[in-house]
Amino acid sequence: MTSRLNPYLSFTGDARQALEFYREVFGGELSLNTYGDFGQADAPGSTGGEKIMHGMLETPSGFTLMAADTPPGMESTAGTNFSVSLSGDDDADLRGYWAKLSEGGSVGVPLDKQMWGDVFGMCTDRFGIPWMVNIVQAQG
Predict the structure, then answer these.
(1) Is 57:72 a contact under the CB 8 Å cutoff?
(2) Would residue 75 count as lying in a domain?
(3) Which pLDDT band holds residue 108 (cuts at 50, 70, 90)?
(4) Do 116 and 107 form a contact (C-beta atoms < 8 A)?
């Protein structure tokens, strides 16, 4: 297996909903394992074992996105020192992702042509995850 780098997101109880939303955005195969699947249904804060211990979305475009609910008994700290970045030259795909990710969230930088020549935008989805989308424009 080749090494790869991909985001692993932490949630405070809505990892299932977030990963299902990302599957709607990007398509692909979603696998979800709950705390209950691993014998931790009675762990404090695990809500009967239904919280997600590990989830992974693998998309037709080759993206891999992983996520979990914060483990029972562990404090959740939302960070602001990261964004998930999508970039490429497929205008239609990237605009489609942008539309879905920004719906119900907030737009920090509208998706528009920027001084470096590409179309770029920043949004935070309805689950609080910050996204950057950069659509590379042909130079000419």
Answers:
(1) no
(2) no
(3) very high
(4) no
Determine the residue type at 43: A
pTM as predicted: 0.79
Counting every residue written for the chain, the total comes to: 140
Residue 120 is given by DSSP the state E
Q: Indicate whether 62 and 107 sit together in one domain.
A: no
* Complete edge-to-edge strand list for the sheet that includes strand 84-88: 84-88, 130-135, 119-124, 106-113
Token digits of residue 121: 């935008």
Q: Which of 69, 96, 116 is a domain's end point?
A: 69
Q: What is the CATH number of the domain that holds 102?
A: 3.30.720.110
In a domain, 1, yes or no: no
15, 55 contact by CB (below 8 A): yes
Write out pLDDT tens, residues 35-79. 888 776 666 555 657 889 899 999 999 999 999 888 766 666 655
